[in-house]
Amino acid sequence: MERTIPYWTGVIEAEAIESGRSVLVASSENAIRGLLMHLLGIPSGRIAEIEIPTGLPLLFDPESCRLSLLEGSVDAHNFGKGGAELLFGCIPADEDAPPPQPRRRATV
Questions:
Q1: Within 10 Å of residue 81's Cβ, how many Cβ atoms?
Q2: 74: which DSSP letter?
């Protein structure tokens, strides 16, 4: 996350998403996990529960702060023990934490 999040916020978000352009991010599973932790507010203690299938396009909707599949059924893939939280809603780091701020739609 040391390089991923600063690049996301300083370049991808600031120069592409904010101007309404679509973004495709292809990276290693660990970098994608870090980005999802940032975008969805997933606590670091829960991220290991989530499996990210290789080569499966995921859509991030900043308005609802959720991921969805580009096509197909969620049941057809193994997203691990925490997959439901990953796909269907934000997980605040703690009960008092505000949800992440809305962002434009991006493909991760």
A1: 12
A2: G
With cut-offs at 50, 70 and 90, classify the pLDDT of residue 64. Answer: confident
Q: What is the pLDDT of residue 10?
A: 93
Cα–Cα distance, 43 to 77 (Å, whole number): 22
Cα gap 96→63, rounded to integer Å = 20
What is the structure's pLDDT at 11? 92
pTM: 0.71
Q: How many CA atoms lie within 13 A of 28 on its CB side?
A: 6
The C-alpha atoms of residue 37 and residue 96 are separated, in whole angstroms, by 17
Distance in angstroms (rounded) separating the CA atoms of residues 2 and 98: 23
CA neighbours closer than 13 Å in the CB half-sphere of residue 11: 7
- Residue 42 CA to residue 24 CA, distance in Å, equals 21
